[in-house]
Design a protein that fits this description.
alpha/beta; globular; 2 domains; TIM Barrel; magnesium ion binding; 16 helices; xylose isomerase activity
Length: 451
């Protein structure tokens, strides 16, 4: 089986990272900042290498289109491969640099928006023509390197035409344009062997209810999703459709606020068989939830699809998209992911960007190495927690009263208010208080983290 750790069959004529070789696993004791301490892609767990368990992916938009700009200042990051007057040539050179990076990082996957990889033209036809050129280039690079596409998507939020949304736009002309753009994006994702396709409603929401027909907008969004499902069937696209929830920013309220509201939306409009969720850590916290909470809500309904692996700053109330190195948070997330049976065709996509002051080429490596090592360590700790069984045993015992007798009748639907009243007035009486043992369990988790 070919893995991303194997050498590439083709070398780029011009090395864009000439001073950096392939990042190797050197173990926890290494002092080399350009080496993995915990991520060994070839280490085998349950018959599969770690690279197949974690399925890391590099986000093209942040890593190769990010400039370090923020709401208060212009870009700080410049790259040599961005130089040139011809947009297509620059885009191809940028993509060459990206695939060199993927190889050296040993990342088995990448992900992109359509407008990340190809410049937008003055017309949709020109945009599609540009996209076709870059898709052909990407296809050749994927074949040469063995790097695969985790997912593709369409950028329906940066162009001014989408200022009031895409599928939820009050103008049917904009809806039609967005539909045409997504049609093409699904097709190129299929062309590149993408294993998923993501819908992120960047502006599918509202800023004020004063000018919004909320019911109609949600119905339009559902109609858009059904059209996407129909087109996927028509062209034979077998990838998994994913929804990525986010509560706010740039709109005040987005319709895919969190996983729970997303589930309600899917079930209301008969879409639940066609979609799963791509859960982003930073979006979870912006919604007032923990990362683990969103994973558990999706997994409880069999709708866990993929992860955008990042984090927000606890002191900032916006989407900072930082690389996550919080091993405790990631361990709890990995416990939930492993309990759910893993991510299937999904993966851990680093939807994260360098800080504004991190302008050197090696900063891009340091950031991803830290994220990959942190997730790998969390994976190993989570496996140990689940194998030891203490946490699961406590939870099972806490709910054991539902395993038989009247508790089982409650769960099966046989119990009634009348039957339960009879029990309480008779032999049951007043319930005894039982400790939730939260501090004990937190100490248990700490014992795995710190030894």
């Amino acid at each position: 089986m070919k893995t991303a750790s194997k050498p590439a069959s083709r070398k780029s004529a011009t090395a864009h990272f000439p001073k950096i070789g392939q990042i190797a696993y050197e173990g926890p004791a290494t002092k080399n900042p350009l080496a993995f301490r915990h991520y060994n892609p070839d280490e085998v767990f349950d018959g599969k290498p770690l690279s197949e368990h974690l399925r890391f992916s590099v986000a093209y938009w942040h890593s190769f289109r990010g400039t370090g700009a923020d709401p208060f200042g212009s870009g700080t990051i410049t790259r040599k491969w961005e130089q040139g007057k011809d947009e297509i040539s620059v885009a191809k050179k940028r993509m060459d640099a990206a695939f060199e990076f993927f190889q050296k990082l040993q990342s088995p996957f990448w992900a992109f928006h359509d407008r990340d990889i190809a410049p937008e033209g003055r017309t949709l036809a020109q945009s599609n023509k540009n996209l076709d050129k870059l898709v052909a280039h990407a296809k050749a690079l994927q074949k040469a390197t063995g790097v695969k596409l985790l997912w593709g998507t369409a950028c329906l939020f940066t162009n001014p035409r989408y200022m009031a949304g895409a599928a939820t736009n009050p103008d049917a002309h904009v809806f039609a344009y967005a539909a045409a753009q997504v049609k093409k994006a699904i097709e190129v994702t299929q062309e590149l062997g993408g294993e998923n396709y993501v819908f992120w409603g960047g502006r599918e929401g509202y800023d004020t209810l004063l000018n919004t027909d909320l019911k109609r907008e949600q119905e339009h969004l559902a109609r858009f999703m059904h059209m996407a499902v129909d087109h996927a069937k028509a062209i034979g696209f077998k990838g998994q459709f994913l929804i990525e929830p986010k509560p706010k920013e740039p709109t005040k309220h987005q319709y895919d606020f969190d996983v729970a509201s997303g589930i309600a939306f899917l079930r209301t409009f008969g879409l639940e068989k066609h979609f799963k969720f791509n859960i982003e850590t930073n979006h979870a916290t912006l919604a007032g939830h923990t990362f683990s909470h969103e994973i558990e809500v999706a997994a409880s309904q069999g709708l866990l699809g993929s992860i955008d692996a990042n984090a927000g700053d606890v002191l900032l109330g916006w989407d900072t998209d930082q690389f996550n190195t919080d091993v405790r948070e990631l361990t709890l997330a990995m416990v939930s992911i492993l309990r759910a049976g893993g991510l299937g065709s999904g993966g851990l996509n680093f939807d994260a960007k360098l800080r504004r002051q991190s302008i050197d080429l090696d900063d891009l490596f340091h950031a991803h190495i830290g994220g990959m090592d942190s997730y790998a360590l969390a994976f190993k700790i989570a496996r140990q927690i689940l194998a030891d069984g203490q946490l699961d045993a406590f939870v099972a015992e806490r709910y054991s009263s539902y395993d038989g007798g009247y508790g089982a009748e409650i769960e099966s639907g046989k119990a009634t208010f009348k039957s339960l009243e009879k029990l309480v007035l008779g032999k049951l009486g007043e319930p005894k208080l039982r400790s939730g043992k939260q501090e004990l369990l937190e100490n248990l988790i700490s014992s795995y983290l710190h030894g």
